[in-house]
Design brief:
Elements: E1 11-15, H1 20-31, E2 35-39, H2 53-64, E3 68-72, H3 79-93, E4 98-101, H4 116-126, H5 128-144, E5 147-152, H6 155-160, H7 165-185, E6 190-196, H8 215-223, H9 239-245, E7 255-260, E8 263-267, E9 271-272, H10 286-291, H11 293-297, E10 302-303, H12 308-321
Parallel strand pairs: 1-2, 1-4, 2-3, 4-5, 5-6, 6-7
Antiparallel strand pairs: 7-8, 9-10
Helix pairs in contact: 3-5, 4-7, 5-7
Length: 325
């Protein structure tokens, strides 16, 4: 049986493709037949400076291997830049099939000390930057009745990391964005998923160990078992998952997926069955809710709503189970 996953005839945009994760995604997409738009502004891991060299080097490597690629040095942080990225792909290759929103950088600091500049710059690239590229890409995909989006989230948002409130807020926003793109895109052959990658990359160099001042967080670092991570923290370990999620073979959408130490896993957001207040003319008192707190938090039964309206069904299911309706 031939189970090869290829990208012949597909056009992919990868932002932040000059280094690290994005670079490896772009190279592997090209090896498997995709035509690739390599976008990179050429900034440092803190988002400083600009250079065409990073994107040019990746394009050269793809072309030297017989693939097709073009470079883009536009910034995702502006609407004009995002539109230019997509238009460059269309001008070069005629369409857009795949969009991997990977561009980003870190500017760490204590939550209470983060300045507007530290917040706005990070949100501008990670969250607004994803909008700026994805919106014109979505329009192009909708016209063709096919598309694959992959937004780059982070365990820092899903699970938490001290001194990264700005970064986590941006990455958390991408979760909501991906979910909505998945719902709306389902009418037009477009899927969308969120990837939580783990890798030792340039961004790690921007992190100091000041966050160890938080005792509970420092303890979690000390207790972490990294046996499986040995030799498995390079960016390449994320590529199989990223490329599968943007392949024609993948039917997954509206999902969150994690790669850590060579472990590939779906991440779910679920709600407990909870406690349903008795039918009455008024809501329960705070004290009544407090008495039922164990039931509110009991994980024995869980629901996984995939839209806002699914939660109404989950609430009614719990109410029937508990004999309230």
């Amino acid at each position: 049986m031939n189970d090869h996953i290829g990208f012949d005839g597909r056009v992919a945009i990868v932002t932040g493709a000059g280094n690290g994760l994005g670079r490896d995604y772009a190279l592997e997409l090209a090896r498997r037949g995709a035509k690739v738009l390599v976008n990179d502004l050429g900034v440092t891991g803190a988002g400083i400076g600009a250079s065409s060299a990073a994107a040019d080097d990746v394009v050269r490597e793809i072309r030297d291997a017989g693939g097709e690629a073009v470079a883009s040095y536009d910034s995702v942080a502006t609407r004009e830049g995002g539109a230019a990225i997509v238009q460059t792909a269309i001008d070069a290759f005629g369409k857009v099939d795949i969009c991997i929103a990977n561009a980003g950088f870190l500017r760490n600091g204590r939550f209470e000390d983060l300045s507007d500049e530290q917040i706005d710059a990070v949100l501008g690239v990670h969250l607004k930057g994803a909008f700026h590229v994805a919106q014109p890409a979505y329009k192009a995909m909708r016209r063709n009745g096919y598309g694959r989006f992959l937004f780059t989230g982070s365990a820092s948002a899903m699970f938490g990391h001290a001194w990264q409130a700005n970064y986590a807020a941006g990455k958390g926003g991408l979760m909501g964005l991906s979910h909505v793109v998945a719902i709306e895109g389902s009418a037009y052959g477009i899927t969308s998923n969120l990837l939580l990658p783990t890798a030792a990359s340039r961004l790690a160099a921007e992190m100091t160990d000041g966050f160890k001042e938080i005792p509970a967080f420092a303890d979690s670092i000390a207790r972490s078992d990294r046996a499986a991570a040995r030799g498995r923290t390079s960016p390449e370990y994320n590529t199989p998952l990223a490329l599968y999620l943007v392949s024609e073979a993948c039917r997954e959408t509206h999902g969150i997926f994690s790669q850590n130490s060579g472990r590939y896993a779906k991440v779910r957001i679920v709600a407990a069955d909870g406690w349903v207040a008795p039918v009455a003319d008024a809501p329960p008192t705070i004290e009544e809710l407090a008495r039922q707190w164990d039931a509110v938090c009991d994980p024995t039964i869980e629901h996984e709503p995939l839209t806002v309206y699914d939660e109404f069904t989950a609430a009614s299911t719990a109410a029937r189970r508990q004999g309230v309706i």
